[in-house]
């Protein structure tokens, strides 16, 4: 290896580290498409058969899956299951098994629907805070929502349940017992 190829190699390693770290950070932030882009660039810069190249490809598999690119994730896992590094090969086989497992059907009543809040970021601030209604009484409506409804006292159980007397007797007996024992 001559000195120029070593310099290119060290440049590639530096670029790889930048792309690899950017891909991991994007993945951890939930920016899966950006993560895929950075990790693909990192994998192109590193020898895919090296341990570090295999590690970057493992991250790429998870980014593919998170970005909804399951066929690409499975194809890459199949390659990783034949990787020269034993740890990478073992992890590739494990991930391949998980990705190819049949999806379980869950009853709808077991699931909680989470509303898509992605459109909120694109909306105007007036839309997020609530727009004024046609009658122009949005402040009054909000105030009405904050005030509690009146309570119907005929529905409230006002019968004395003797709790205060039981608690008072228990307190007197406890204090008297402590005094008698001399504690």
From TrEMBL:
Arranged from A to Z, the UniProt key words for this protein are: Membrane, Transmembrane, Transmembrane helix
Q: Which SUPFAM superfamilies match?
A: TPR-like (SSF48452)
Q: Which domain of life is it from?
A: Bacteria
| Segments traversing the membrane | 163-182
Q: Where is the composition biased (Basic and acidic residues)?
A: 138-148
| Annotated segments matching region Disordered | 119-152
Gene3D superfamilies documented for this protein: Tetratricopeptide repeat domain (1.25.40.10)
What name does UniProt use for this protein? Tetratricopeptide repeat protein
């Amino acid at each position: 290896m001559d000195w120029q190829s070593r310099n290119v190699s060290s440049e590639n390693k530096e670029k790889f580290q930048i792309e690899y770290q950017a891909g991991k950070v994007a993945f951890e932030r939930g920016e899966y498409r950006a993560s895929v882009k950075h990790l693909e660039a990192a994998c192109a810069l590193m020898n895919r058969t090296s341990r570090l190249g295999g590690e970057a490809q493992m991250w790429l598999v998870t980014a593919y899956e998170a970005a909804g690119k399951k066929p690409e994730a499975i194809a890459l896992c199949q390659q990783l299951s034949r990787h020269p590094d034993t740890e990478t090969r073992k992890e590739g086989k494990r991930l391949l098994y998980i990705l190819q497992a049949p999806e379980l059907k869950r009853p709808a009543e077991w699931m909680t629907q989470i509303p898509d809040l992605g459109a909120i970021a694109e909306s105007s601030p007036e839309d997020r805070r609530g727009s004024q209604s046609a009658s122009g009484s949005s402040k009054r409506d909000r105030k009405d929502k904050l005030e509690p409804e009146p309570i119907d006292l005929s529905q409230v159980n006002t019968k004395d349940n003797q709790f205060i007397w039981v608690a008072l007797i228990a307190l007197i007996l406890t204090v008297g017992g402590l005094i008698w024992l001399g504690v």
